[in-house]
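fyi for ur records
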Amino acid sequence: MDANTFAKYEARAKIIKAMAHPTRLFLVDELARSGPRCVCELTEMVGADISTVSRHLAILKGVGIVEDQRRGAQVYYRLRVQCVLDFFNCVESVLKCNLVDQRRLLVSEP
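which gave:
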């Protein structure tokens, strides 16, 4: 693999790694459903302290999944790219396939 190809896959891995946390997946899903939300609202929904939620949002922002906008004293976050939801659909498809495989194993047991 040449350096350019490696850099491309490394960039992809960085984005996937940023999403690899249940709280961050929840934040992305919530922003997709409800649109822009302030950190205070998201903190209440997650049930964690504001610094923890802010850190999760900073990770998502760092890879370009979300963007922020200051409105007075509040910071609002929104999805920067809607296509991240395609990834969620793909993950759900994998989960369903795995479930089918597991059911098949259970049914075929003696």
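The chain is about 70% helix and 15% strand. thats all i got for now
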